[in-house]
Amino acid sequence: MxxxxxxxxxxxxxxxxxxxxxxxxxxxxxDTGEILAIVGESGSGKSVSMLAMMGLLPWTAxxxxxEMTFDGHNLLTMNTKARRKIVGNDLxxxxxxxxxxxxxxxxxxxQIKESLRVHLGLNRKQRHARAIxxxxxxxxxxxxxxxxxxxxxxxGGMNQRVMIAMAIACKPKLLIADEPTTALDVTIQAQxxxxxxxxxxxxxxxxxxxxxxxxxxxxxxxxxSVQYAGQxxxxxxxxxxxxxxxxxxxxxLLDALPExxxxxxxxxxxxxxxGQFDRPAGCLFSPRCKFADAKCKAESPAxxxxxxxxxxxxxxxxxxxxxxx
Amino acid sequence: xxxxxxxxTALARHYEVxxxxxxxxxxxxxxxxxxxALFPGKTxxxxxxxxxxxxxxxxxxxMIEEPTSGSFAIDGKTVLPExxxxxxxxxxxxxxxxxxxxxxxxRIAQILEEPLVxxxxxxxxxxxxxxxxxxxxxxxxxxxxxxRYPHMFSGGQRQRIAIARALMLDPKxxxxxxxxxxxxxxxxxxxxxxxxxxxxRLNLAYLFISHDLSVVKHISDDxxxxxxxxxxxxxSKDAVFAGAKHPYTKALLSATPQADPKAPKERIKxxxxxxxxxxxxxxxxxxxxxxxxxxKCRSERPELSADAHAAACFFPEN
Lengths: 325, 318
Prior knowledge:
The complex is a heterodimer. Chain A is an alpha/beta fold. Chain A has 13 helices and eleven strands. Chain B is an alpha/beta fold. Chain B has a single domain, classed as Rossmann fold, CATH 3.40.50. In chain B, strands 6-7-8-3-9-10-11 form a seven-stranded mixed sheet, sandwiched between helices. In chain B, strands 2-1-4-5 form a four-stranded antiparallel sheet.
């Protein structure tokens, strides 16, 4: 039984110009102690699916799913009050912009102690001791003094550590990191990724890493789910995904990486991600796909078997059949 | 060997910050003396983490700010504030954020023609339009885009417009300040290809400012690595990427994630963070984070030698 199980999740936003489908029939499983990466370009719905699961979307969003369970709780039928007990406690999230996610009006120590008070009911002394312990765990030097610092007095890397400390304060079973290192420099990024991986090893929590950086995926993730225009188009373990991608989009995305280039001109993907008004009828990637035919443009492909990475494609790449022909 | 299109010697920019009635202002050395030469048709990449002074360098060479000391020359002419106006058109800049750098109230036509209206007053309206339409074609946009507004374009197309605008005055040098870091991966490769095409066709010199080492490795010919306002390593791309000499370069390279899950992970972990630029350590600025630091590093500042591949370090790697 997996820790998080999502089946057929769709999210629609009511906008002034009509309905916009941000997440389209996504299935997702996360097991205890594993690192899953969700990759995709901007607008591929990778953050929205996780926010929907946590119930953090605004009222304009309509969430539908066949199944959405976390650790035995059914998130679909659960009321807001019960959900709030889980969110921030067993289920925690780190956001992209540490500077704007922290409250500038309170010292970081106050903010971290708040969750300890609400979720764990510790007394003042225990909270203080636990906060110092957490700061040490995430590698903040001089934790005693840093507790009374305000977010603007610390660097981006330090603030992100505070966010991580806050997220792991209640020993969550699942931690969702939404672009945790995008705003940071590479040397700091390396420190934060190592920290997240070592926290996973220590606590055995599940970790969902939402990112657009293929390098981060390759170095950190164990399993990768690729999203495009709201759909999950492929899911594989990390090594086979980089070696033998099955969906043409994954393949094209990997080819576009500068470090994989064999010549000066990089292979490109023509066109842009479809928006609200130019969603194609068939396969969403068909207008940009070099293998697309009439069938791709008319029908929407269903996911293939597990062996083919559940690729949403009629003609998956790197199969025995393809290699033979 | 061709003559460099731009040379800089000991280029520096200091800012005075703070200071009240009783306290003296402190000096912040944003760029503390940089030498480089830029050749036509070549790309010089400047890499470093945030706060290392790479954007200040861009502002200096585009004549937005006056250097505190040192000088630079374009095409043999020394740049002084008196002749800024005449030299500015030979060096143009493309900014990082294509959403912020285009005026949402101007049509593409106006955006592209504005530099001509200001700098080429002798051109007629028809000539300006012809030139703008030609430029739209050159950067891979369609003719019907001429009358549209920036909000009608995607990020990649906007960056193409920004590049077209920078090229309107036929510059010799293009400063690219993180031109692709705001773009998605699938768009990024198309914009990089465009930059390579334009360079070959127009023999442009690029000063490419970036923190993304995989992009730098792909596009550049020479690399300067900056740390706290100083160049710590300089050399050809191949030399720097294959045999980094400065420990900081080495750490930066090892920290950059590789898109290959099977690659060996030999990350050099740097402890600590960039020190405040107001309190740069006395000796080597990298000494507090360096793993092979010795007493000499803390007392003396290593200088960059004039070699083709040089590192400002007493105990270089390799």
